[in-house]
Specification:
heterodimer; A: five-stranded parallel beta sheet; two-stranded antiparallel sheet; 8 helices; 7 strands; 13% strand; B: alpha+beta; Cytochrome-c3 Hydrogenase, chain B; three-stranded antiparallel beta sheet; 12% strand
Amino acid sequence: MVQADTLWKVMAEQAMIINYSRGDNALSLLKKAIAWGTRKSPWIIHFNAGSCNGCDIEIVDALTPRFDLERLGILQRGTPRHADVLVCTGAVTLQTKDRLKQIYDQMPEPKFVIATGTCACSGGVFNGCYCVMGGIDSVIPVDVYIPGCAVRPEAIISAVAKLLGALEAQQKGGGKDADRRSDHSQVSREIQYFKG
Amino acid sequence: MSEYNRVVIPIGPQHPSLKEPGCFTVTLDGEKIVDVVVGIGYNHRGLEKACESRNYIQIIYLLERICGICSHTHTTAFCQGVEELAGISIPRRAAYIRVIVAEIERLHSHLLWLGVAAHEIGFDTMFMYAWRDREAVLDILAAVGGNRVNYGINTIGGVRRDIDDSLRQDILKMTDALQEQVKYYQELALTETTLAARLAGIGKLSGEDALKYGAVGPVIRASGIDFDIRAVDPYAVYAEIPFKVITDTHADVFGRTVVRILELLESIEIIRFCIKNMPDGDIVTKAPRRIPAGEVISRTEAPRGEDIHYIRSNGTERPDRVRVRAPSEANWHAMRHMLLGQYLADAPITIAAIDPCFSCTDRAIVINSGRETELMDWPRLRQYSIDWYKKRGIDVASIKIPERRMYF
C-alpha cells in the first residue's frame, strides 16, 4: 500500500504540473515515475536469438523455486510490449536478426538489454560460423553482459541486481544516460524499414 | 463454404509458449487445425560446416553446444564414431561413466519436459515441483562435470573426469530422493483425473503412422513400438545392463507423459546398477591426433530419441564432413500429422509433447522430392552437359574456338 500511495502522490504532482507548469517538467516527472516503477518491478522478456538452449533453461531455472527471481518483483512476460528488460541469449543468427530488432523496437522506453551467456556477449564458440552475426551487440545496444557457458542462475540474478543498482544511481545522477539514449534512438531509426 | 472461413495464425518465432524460435503457421477451420507449416531454421548456426575447420578435440566442445539439454549424448555419439575410425577401444570404467552421465542427463531432460508440459496445460504447480526436483539432478551434474549445463565429460578415448566414491554416494542419495518424487508424479499422472482428461486423446499417433513418419524416442515408444537404441543397437555398456524398454499403447500425449515418467524410474535403476558394477581402472586411453581415413555412422539414444552422427575422416587432424541427425529433427513430421484435426487450444501441448529442441533441429537439409539422387564423377558430368546441350540443338563438341587474331 505504501508503494501505491507513493505512486499516487507522484501522479498527482505530475497532473498538477501538467496543468500549471511548463511541459518539460511534466515530462521529466513522468519519466521519473516510470523509472521508479521499472526499478521496483522490472518485467522481463526472454528471446532466444540462436542459443544452444543452455542459457535459456538457466533463465527459466532462475524463475523457479530454488532461485525464484519473482520474489524480487521480476516477472516474465510473453509480449515485448509489456517488458522493460530484454533478456537475450545466443549468438545472433541471420534468420533471427530481423526478429530481434523488431522485438527490441516493440518494447516501450525505457528499455534495457541483458546479453546472457558467452555467445550473446561475443558469439562465443559459434563465432565465424557462416550463419552467425556475432554477439547481441552486433544488432542492438546491450546494457549488461553476463559471460558464462552456460550462465548460472546466480549470475543472472547478480546481473539483474546490478542493472537495478545502476538504474538507481543513474536516476540520482540525473540525465547521465543521454549518450546511451541516443544510441537507442539510432537503432530505432535503422528499424524504420520494417514499417515502410 | 469452409474455404472462406479459414484463418491463418502464425505462432512464433517469439511466442509465450515457445522457449525457442520456431514458426508454426497454423490454418484453422473454426477451431480445428486443417494445415500446419513448420518453419524452422531460426537457430541454424552452421555447426556442421564449422566442424570442418576444427580439429577433433575442438569439435567435441562445439558439438556439445548443439543443444544445452542433451549435450552429453551428442559428444558421446561423436566420440564413439571417432574411436571406431581410429580403431581404439575405451576403458570399461570410462564406458560406465559415460552411461551414468547419460542417464543423469536423461533424468534432467525428462524432468525439464515434465515441467514444461505441465506449464503448457496451465498446471504451474507441477512445473515448479518438477523444476525444483531437477535442481538436485543439476547439482550432481555440476559435481560430476564442474558445470550445470555443458559438462564436458567426453573426450576421444574415454572420459575426462572420474566419479570417485564420495560422489557415488551423493549420486545414490540423489536417486533415492528423486525416486520418491517420481513415484509421486507417476501416481499423479495415472490417477489425477484432470490431468488425464487434459492429455488423453490429443496428439494421436498410431504405431503405423509413427513408423511411417519416422518418429523416434518417447514419441514412438508411446505408440507401442519398442524402439530404443540402447536395446536395438547397444553402445557403451548398455548390452550388460538389464533394463526394460518402456512402451505404452495410449499413442497420445498422455502415453508420452507416462513413458517419460516410467523412463525416469528406469534411468534411476540403470544409474544404481552402473554405480554398483563400475570396474576400477583407467578412464582414458591415448588417442591419435590424426584419424585414419574412413566413414562411420554412430548412434546413441538421446533423451528425445535416436541421435545419429555421420563422420567422414581423411587422415588429417580435421574431418571431411560431420552430419548430425538430432532426434527432434525426426519428430517434426509426426508432429505435423498429430496436429491435423486437433483443436487450436491443444496445439501448444501437442507441440511440447514431442519435446522439441530447435537448436538440435536446425540443420541445413536439401530434399529432392520424387527424384533419385546420384553421384557423378567429372567425366560423366562433362558428358552429361554435352548431351544436355545436344538435346537442345547445340553441339558443344563441334564448336570450334576461333584462333586468336593478332592485331599488330
